[in-house]
Amino acid sequence: NIKMKPLSVYATQLIFLLARYLPFVFPKNIRMSAEHIRNAKRYEIFDESHDQASFLEGNFKWKAISIVTKLTQNDVLLIQEWMKSNVATAAFRDKKFGGFCMPKIVSGFNNLGAINYSNSSLHPEIPNLGVKSNYAQSCLLSLVKLGPNSYYLSAYYKLQEEATKHIRQIDTSHMRGYKVLLSFNPFFKHFGAYSSVHQEKVIDRELNRRVDTVCKDVINTYSKTLSFMGIYKSEKHSVLVADFFRYDKRPYLVDRELPEDNDEKQGYSLLPRRRYKHLDQKISTNSTENFIVHELTENNCLDAIYILSEDPDLSDEYSKCEHSSLEITSSYVFTSILLERSKEFYKNHEEINISLANDSKKTDLKFGLNFKQS
Q1: pLDDT beyond 90 at 216
Q2: Residue 300, SS3 per DSSP
Q3: Which one, out of 10, 175, 217, 364, has a CA that is 20 to 30 A from the CA of 234?
């Protein structure tokens, strides 16, 4: 698949092919590498057996993407003004008088209402701003106040079924590993040395690309929504958390020693159950919640991954998490805020180091306020 292989891969394949049929033209290193790769294919040294892959193991649902963004006092005023307009969300409409009734902003969560992005009639009472999205279905907006002049906007984007289909049980039978020369300079001492990218790495890249496709669609939708309010924020100033849901009494991340069940035998997965338990941040006492920040979010747009497992035998169908389509998972919102502060701190830290390296005398003036706010 040309989308998954750089041009250098095809150049490498051509050189190795020519080295086999015209060996007198190429140096010894190239000929040896070409012969080694030929023998490796003959004896099936490399495993290329994954015909299907998913982001998680078993049956799961990509329920939502949560976005948390730091706001200024002026941003909060712009949001309040926007909510007074005709296109504002219906959260604080006074039913008796038909006017706008915005309660006083208090510390903690302040519900700002919901927005619909799909043509579905599932929630006809939710206003639609006319913003098109391939994956976002609706959004719950909340304002989080932590103290004087400390505000955060929390946007919980409920996703359409297409988001889950995009990263679950995808066909990988056509994806194969490849070799690429470390240098194409024939005068390089080690010309002929190459690196191997196995099928699992190719699949990982494709799954991360698909995750980014969904994330970028939601980010674009989020940015357009904020623009209606007169607010313009860069993606770098927000924290994105992928919210996954699955029916299982056990948590998703488990010990290696536990026996596998039939539900897990559905091909390769980017985040296998038995490999990353040590990355779980344990954000609550609920053992069925998993929260991952590092390693698995380094190659995509995400800052964290949240996985909730719920007992499928719950008697009350509408109390199940799967049906709480407009309810934000508050257990990790404050963790997202901490992640945002951490991102801002390291961003300032990196910029200060660059300024110090350039012997800038204005470093204290430029970054002193940012550190104070962080």
Answers
A1: yes
A2: coil
A3: 364
Q: What is the pLDDT of residue 54?
A: 94
Residue 98 pLDDT more than 70? Answer: no
What is the pairing mode between strands 304-310 and 289-292? antiparallel
**Which DSSP helix (H) or strand (E) runs through 102?**
none
Query: Rounded to whole angstroms, what are the CA distances from 218 to 106, 154, 162, 215, 342?
Result: 28, 14, 13, 5, 23
pLDDT the model gives residue 315: 47
User: Which pair of structure tokens corresponds to residue 175?
Assistant: 């994806």
Q: What is the pLDDT of residues 150-172, one digit of tens each?
A: 899 999 999 999 999 999 999 99
Task: Give the full edge-to-edge strand order of the sheet including 136-147.
Answer: 108-116, 136-147, 150-159, 61-71, 238-247, 304-310, 289-292
Q: 189 has which bridge partners?
A: none
Sheet containing 268-271: which strands, arranged edge to edge?
A: 170-171, 52-56, 268-271
Q: Kind and range of the H or E element at 142? A: strand 136-147
Residue 6 has pLDDT above 90, yes or no: no
* CA 268 distance to own-chain centroid: 19
Beta bridge partners, 68, equal 154, 239
Give the confidence band of 359 by pLDDT, cuts at 50, 70, 90: low
